[in-house]
Write a structure and sequence with these properties.
This protein is an alpha+beta fold. It has 5 helices and 17 strands. The chain has one domain: Sandwich (Jelly Rolls), CATH 2.60.120.590. Strand 4 and strand 5 form a beta hairpin. The mean pLDDT is 92. GO terms for molecular function: demethylase activity; oxidoreductase activity. InterPro entries: AlkB-like_sf, ALKBH4. Its cofactor is Fe(2+).
Length: 308
Amino acid sequence: MDKPRPCGCKGRRTCLICEKSHGLENKVFDLSEENGTFVYCPMCNCAWPGWNLNDWQVHPNHSGVPLSYPGIYIGLDFLSEEEEQRLIKNIDNLPWDLSQSGRRKQNFGPKCNFKKRRLRLGDFRGFPKFSQFVQEKFKDVPVLKGFQTIEQCSLEYNPDRGASIDPHIDDCWIWGERIVTVNLLSDSMLTMTYNKKLDKYNLNCIDNYPAVLDSNGKINVDGECYKLTSCDNNQPIVRIPMPNRSLLVMYGPARYYWEHQVLREDIACRRVCLAYREFTPPYLPSGEKFEEGRPILNKASEFLTNYN
């Protein structure tokens, strides 16, 4: 089933629609719990033994031994209910494209070939005007100091289609250190599993990139590059809550050492998220690839009222 199917899936990826119509089986990824499972608490900035979404909500009455888990920032109630409703109304007024594993998407950004490391403007014209206020709110978040969005993607997860996303690390050749998600409509979880494939995701690029943030989430001023060390296979599963209307930023260790996925079981009702990406240093001013990045950066400063 390598060819795209009417539901948007192809290859090993499936949803409830093609599993039923084509007799396919949902691929189940190994989630061994022998090293334990932990749930990150945004109030403690560490993870505690558990699995369920509401396990962090017992704060401060956690039990067990906590796990240090640097590289996560969660801003609760980042958006108001009115802002959320206004966003969803405008998002749904734009056409959705089918995506894999039961998702739908709306993408605003450049065209990227991750294998060949090629970048082009494509039909990117800027971002919808109605979403500009979200990027403006980033300026009030210390871990997002200097963040310039060059891709904004709306992703819809619907339980009726069995929506999910496979474990992965966002590409490291073009997408910068901070991976940003704004969660809408319902609570969900990210499931983090330790990455054993250092030869994937263009991870070899990051040795040349100065770290944006230190382990405490402060802006890094010493200019040192992030260095990946050998894998440690004895790592637990860490679950990151994504409460409705919250902001999630992954950076540093959580960004580079851990694959993240959204399990089908963690989509109880419709969820929409806005995903934001920044450039890696070579494509920013003073970088050796800046001339390639310049037209995209210029378009990324524009917000269009009529985006159809």
